[in-house]
C-alpha cells in the first residue's frame, strides 16, 4: 500500500512555481485511480514560523488563504486528506525524537540553510552574526519535514527539485531511526520529482521564484488579476537578443524561464511551445503571448479562490474532516514509535 504525502507552507500567496512544482501534481496524482493508495496533502503552518514572528492575525489569514488556494487549484477533499500540519500534534512529537537522532553537521550541510546564511555576506563576522540571530527552528526545519513525512509512514513525496536534498535527509533520518531501534517501521520514502523544472524569479532568473521573496513582482501569483499579470510579465527580466525566441537556459535564462512556464501551464513540451512561438518577432509580442496564456489558464482558479474566501464555513469543514482523518493515522503510528523507543 502506498501513501503519497506533501505539504506547502502558508508563507504567502501561491505562485506559479508552487502550482507547477507541487499543487498541480498533487491534483493529477490524487485523481489517478489506484486502489490502496492514500493521498495526504496539507498546509505546513509549523514551518511558516521558522523565519520569524508574525502577528497572529497574519498567520491565521495566511493559513486560511493557503487552504483556499489549494482547493481553488482543484484538489478534491473526497480524493485526498487535506489538513493543517499544526492540527496534528503528533508531527511535533516525532520531530523531537528525530531531532535527538540527527547531527548538527548534517543540518549544516543543507544548501537551503547555507543559502539563507550567505544572504548576509561571506565573511566570518557576517556568519557569526547570522548564527547569533538566526533561530534554531530554521536549522531544524528539515527534521520537522522528515517527521511530517514519516508520521504517516509515507512511501512517496511529490516535490519540486529544490526539495531533493531535504528528501535525501528524510531518508537518512528514517534509516537512522530504523537502525537505532532495530526495526523497519519507517518505509524509506521516494521522491516523486514533479515533471516541470524549477520556475525562476521574474526579476532575477538566476534565483528560484519564492513566496518569501520580498519583491512581489518576482512572482506571478495564481490569484493575480489580469492587469497585474500583464504588468509583471512586461517588467520580467529577459535579454537584448533580437529576433525569434528560443530555449537556452544558460545564455537566455529569462526568456527560457518564460518558455518553461508556458510549457508547464499548457502541458506542452518545450519544443512544441517554441514551435508555436515561431511567429514572434520581438520581446513585446512574446510577452503578450505569455500574458494571454497565463490570464486564460488561471481565470477559473482566481474566481474559485474568491468564492472560497467568502465561505468560511466550508473551509472550516474541510480542515476539520482532514484533521480527523490525518490524526487517526498519526496517533496509531506515534504509539508504535513510543513503544519502539520505550516512551510508552
Ligand atoms: P518559501 O520562500 O517560503 O520557502 P516557496 O515558494 O519556496 O516558499 P515552499 O512552500 O517552500 O514554497 O514549497 C512548496 C512546494 O513548491 C515544494 O514542493 C517546492 O518544491 C515547490 N516550489 C517552490 N518554489 C518552486 C519553484 N520556483 N519552482 C518549482 N517548484 C517550486
Ligand atoms: Mg521553499
UniProtKB/TrEMBL annotation:
<dbReference type="InterPro" id="IPR001412">
    <property type="entry name" value="aa-tRNA-synth_I_CS"/>
</dbReference>
<comment type="similarity">
    <text>Belongs to the class-I aminoacyl-tRNA synthetase family.</text>
</comment>
<protein>
    <recommendedName>
        <fullName>Tryptophan--tRNA ligase, mitochondrial</fullName>
        <ecNumber>6.1.1.2</ecNumber>
    </recommendedName>
</protein>
<dbReference type="GO" id="GO:0005524">
    <property type="term" value="F:ATP binding"/>
</dbReference>
<keyword id="KW-0648">Protein biosynthesis</keyword>
<dbReference type="InterPro" id="IPR024109">
    <property type="entry name" value="Trp-tRNA-ligase_bac-type"/>
</dbReference>
<keyword id="KW-0067">ATP-binding</keyword>
<keyword id="KW-0030">Aminoacyl-tRNA synthetase</keyword>
<dbReference type="Pfam" id="PF00579">
    <property type="entry name" value="tRNA-synt_1b"/>
</dbReference>
<dbReference type="InterPro" id="IPR002305">
    <property type="entry name" value="aa-tRNA-synth_Ic"/>
</dbReference>
<keyword id="KW-0436">Ligase</keyword>
<dbReference type="InterPro" id="IPR002306">
    <property type="entry name" value="Trp-tRNA-ligase"/>
</dbReference>
<dbReference type="InterPro" id="IPR050203">
    <property type="entry name" value="Trp-tRNA_synthetase"/>
</dbReference>
<dbReference type="InterPro" id="IPR014729">
    <property type="entry name" value="Rossmann-like_a/b/a_fold"/>
</dbReference>
<dbReference type="GO" id="GO:0004830">
    <property type="term" value="F:tryptophan-tRNA ligase activity"/>
</dbReference>
<keyword id="KW-0547">Nucleotide-binding</keyword>
<dbReference type="GO" id="GO:0005759">
    <property type="term" value="C:mitochondrial matrix"/>
</dbReference>
<dbReference type="GO" id="GO:0070183">
    <property type="term" value="P:mitochondrial tryptophanyl-tRNA aminoacylation"/>
</dbReference>
Amino acid at each position: 500500500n502506498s501513501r503519497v504525502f506533501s505539504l506547502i507552507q502558508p508563507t504567502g500567496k501561491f505562485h506559479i512555481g508552487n502550482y507547477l512544482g507541487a499543487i498541480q501534481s498533487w491534483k493529477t496524482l490524487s485523481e489517478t485511480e489506484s486502489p490502496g493508495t492514500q493521498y495526504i496533502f496539507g498546509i505546513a503552518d509549523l514551518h511558516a514560523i521558522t523565519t520569524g514572528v508574525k502577528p497572529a492575525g497574519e498567520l491565521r489569514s495566511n493559513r486560511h488563504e493557503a487552504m483556499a488556494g489549494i482547493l481553488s487549484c482543484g484538489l478534491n477533499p473526497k480524493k485526498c486528506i487535506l489538513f493543517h500540519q499544526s492540527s496534528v500534534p503528533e508531527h511535533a512529537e516525532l520531530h523531537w525524537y528525530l531531532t535527538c537522532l540527527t547531527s548538527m553537521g548534517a543540518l549544516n550541510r543543507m544548501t537551503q540553510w547555507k543559502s539563507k546564511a550567505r544572504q548576509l555576506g561571506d565573511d566570518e563576522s557576517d556568519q557569526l552574526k547570522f548564527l547569533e540571530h538566526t533561530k534554531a527552528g530554521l536549522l531544524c526545519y528539515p527534521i520537522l519535514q522528515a517527521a511530517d513525512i514519516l508520521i504517516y509512514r509515507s512511501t512517496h513525496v511529490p516535490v519540486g527539485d529544490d526539495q531533493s536534498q531535504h528528501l535525501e535527509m528524510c531518508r537518512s533520518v528514517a534509516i537512522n531511526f530504523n537502525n537505532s531501534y532495530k526495526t523497519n517501521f519507517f518505509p524509506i520514502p521516494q521522491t516523486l520529482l514533479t515533471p516541470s523544472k524549477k520556475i525562476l524569479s521574474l526579476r532575477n532568473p538566476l534565483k528560484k521564484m519564492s513566496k518569501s521573496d520580498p519583491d512581489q513582482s518576482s512572482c506571478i501569483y495564481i490569484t493575480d488579476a489580469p492587469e497585474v499579470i500583464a504588468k509583471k510579465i512586461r517588467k520580467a527580466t529577459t535579454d537584448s537578443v533580437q529576433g525569434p525566441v528560443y530555449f537556452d537556459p544558460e545564455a537566455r535564462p529569462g526568456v527560457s524561464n518564460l518558455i518553461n512556464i508556458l510549457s508547464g501551464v499548457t502541458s506542452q513540451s518545450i519544443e512544441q511551445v517554441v514551435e508555436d512561438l515561431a511567429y514572434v518577432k520581438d520581446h513585446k509580442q512574446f510577452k503578450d503571448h505569455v500574458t494571454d496564456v497565463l490570464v486564460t489558464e488561471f481565470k477559473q482558479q482566481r474566481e474559485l479562490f474568491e468564492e472560497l474566501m467568502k465561505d468560511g464555513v466550508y473551509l472550516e469543514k474541510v480542515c476539520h474532516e482532514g484533521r480527523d482523518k490525518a490524526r487517526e493515522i498519526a496517533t496509531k503510528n506515534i504509539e508504535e514509535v513510543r513503544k519502539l523507543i520505550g516512551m510508552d
